[in-house]
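Hello forum,

I keep getting stuck at the same step: I have a sequence, I want structure tokens, and every attempt I make locally crashes halfway through. Rather than fight my setup again tonight, could one of you with a working pipeline run this one for me? It's a single chain of 422 residues.
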Amino acid sequence: MIEVASLVYTNEIRHALRGAPVIYVPRTALALIVLAAFSLAPSAAAQEQTLTSSSERKARQLFVKGLTKAQVGEHEAALSLYEKALKKASDQPAVLSAAAKAYQATGDAETALLYARRAAQQASDRPFYARRLAGLLAETDRPAEAADAYRSVLERFPDDCSALRALARLHRDENRPAEALGTYARLLEAGADSAAVLARMTPIYRNAPDGAAANLPPALRNALTDRKAPPDSTDSAKDGTNLVTRAHDLAETDPAEARHLLRRALDANSSQPEARELLGTLLLRNGEYDEAAEYLTQATRQNPRDPARWRRATEALRRSGRPAEARSVAEEGLLLFPGHLPLLAAAARSALDDDAPAAALNRVNEALDMLDNQPEQHASFLVIKGDALAAQNQAEAARSNWQQARQLDPDNTDVQERLREQ
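Reply #2:
Ran it on my machine without issues. Output:
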């Protein structure tokens, strides 16, 4: 497996006058960093055996250089580097997808689609690349092809909530209310948060022509009918703060009602990072990881000055099965809060999830260098270090770190579990 040992970021953090808030404006190209796992698709397993270690290293270096160029807007230079990387490893979906984004940025939509299709074909067992292809089709004014691409994803992954959401939005934007309502109904069946889905369905149902909801289950039609009336005037923007306050009061005793109030608050006034953060946190607790990640990452963009927001967004992304995105968010947070221990732990765990144990070790060692007389935190990082060493097939070194962790914190359940498995 080819692994990127480190990610390269451009520091876009700027400070205004002393005492003024930090303003962080992430570049659009930063989204490419989520591709830096650079792992081979199963369909390319045979090729992996033929690549020399020198070729692997060179391809990796070219890919990272390309990401760096794309991040600063030098897309032509990035493309040159991606093409060279593909000569070393021609079927890498991460590089193909990055090249597609770069071609799109240069205005060459046809070539972008060609590369996006190749990426999806090379990683047919991973819906991420197929969703990227569908999204690119939608962005290039090919809504019918985009819808077909999303349907293709759903044929293989029927419960892919991200694909269902995107397809439902596409139907809504194309003024196909019956299809939008039907897709949202499938999203409910796939286990998405019912309050969130119903909130999206209600305005479509309210304005749909007769018969558009005919194929919905009767119980769902009844639920939408009950919600059909427009919201009360008290749900205006000026009352959003009151709804958030009430949600805070109910967060522990009635989290379902708290989530409902927070959705109403955001409908009234979407520019409320506190509401997004609390809603994302409650969704995270409730196991709605995909939607929690959406709200928590939005909260970090609206107000990036709280490191806990970055940590929670990372956790939600990890739990929703998006380790590369989780790793990117954690690393981005560390640009704002270098040395922040919970973020270092989140970055290390995300790197492990992303099959990058060397990067995880770097973050763990950075944290261990700062710890002093903090045995419980020290033990937690030693557990992660042991996990990273185990991922590198260093079983004895891993066990040694876990044993040190147990000495520092005998009650640490993570280390107890790992040593029990030995």
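The first strand starts at residue 13 and ends at 15. If your local run keeps crashing, start a new thread with the error log.
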